[in-house]
Design brief:
Layout lengths: L2 H24 L5 H26 L8 H11 L2 H11 L3 H25 L4
Length: 121
């Protein structure tokens, strides 16, 4: 896991979460901006996942529990697609709020992955 990249992901997830929750409460239905923001989060998660697979192979394994990290890394990849599917099926303002909840969930899980990787718990 690359620390600075984790902080980029965390800040982006929080900003997207705030944005989508606010516009959801204002009354926006899911649109290209809200769904696209979560898709961007997913792309960054995939990039971090590739990095997390390569680093141990080149001699930089996680300092914490590798299995726990792997479970978090695999699970977090499911959150944005699940929220996006929900938003595309239920085209109401509340599904925009669900996109925000998904973004906040990613923020928490990415931070936990950081704690596990660097054995900060």
């Amino acid at each position: 896991m690359i620390e600075w990249f984790m902080w980029v992901q965390l800040v982006l997830a929080v900003v997207v979460g705030i944005f989508t929750v606010v516009v959801g409460f204002v009354g926006w239905k899911p649109n290209d901006y809200t769904v696209g923001a979560l898709a961007l989060i997913e792309v960054l998660l995939l990039a971090q996942g590739v990095v997390s697979l390569v680093l141990p192979a080149v001699g930089s394994p996680p300092q914490g529990n590798g299995l726990e990290f792997g479970v978090y890394a695999a699970s977090v990849l499911l959150v944005p697609p699940a929220a996006i599917v929900w938003a595309l099926i239920d085209r109401t303002r509340w599904s925009t709020v669900v996109l925000g909840a998904g973004a906040f969930t990613v923020a928490v899980m990415v931070y936990r992955m950081y704690q596990i990787w660097f054995a900060l718990n």
